[in-house]
Specification:
This is Thiol reductase thioredoxin. The chain is an alpha/beta fold and 104 residues long. The chain contains four helices and five strands. It has one domain: Glutaredoxin. The chain is globular and about 30 Å long. The two termini are 23 Å apart.
């Protein structure tokens, strides 16, 4: 199942809501590595991750890109109660991502 896509306004609402744990994948449409990262996260989600997973196009999130200091794509941002707890730029493997989401 594809990751739910959100825009900058929705991401700000998620961060402000302090809904516990959330993961957001920043991508661009023409990035091949981003597509691989997205597919890996879809597998993690199907394996039973209890983290809500979202994706967003970094081109349409200029404020968050600057506020959260996103340096490149793909970037997986892990949030806990609206605060960034981790940023992952290297999506090493499905197993790595699964464990990363479990421990966060």
């Amino acid at each position: 199942m594809p990751l739910q896509e959100v825009d900058e306004h929705q991401l700000k609402q998620l961060a402000a809501a302090q809904v516990g744990r959330t993961a957001v994948l920043f991508t661009t449409p023409l990035c091949g590595t981003c597509k691989v990262a997205e597919r890996m996260l879809e597998i993690v989600e199907a394996a039973g991750s209890d983290y809500p997973l979202y994706k967003t196009n970094i081109n349409f999130t200029p404020r968050l890109r600057n506020d959260w200091q996103i340096e490149s794509v793909p970037c997986l941002v892990l949030l806990k109660n609206g605060n960034i707890i981790s940023k992952e730029y290297a999506m090493r493997s499905v197993d790595y991502l699964y464990k990363k989401l479990r421990e966060a």
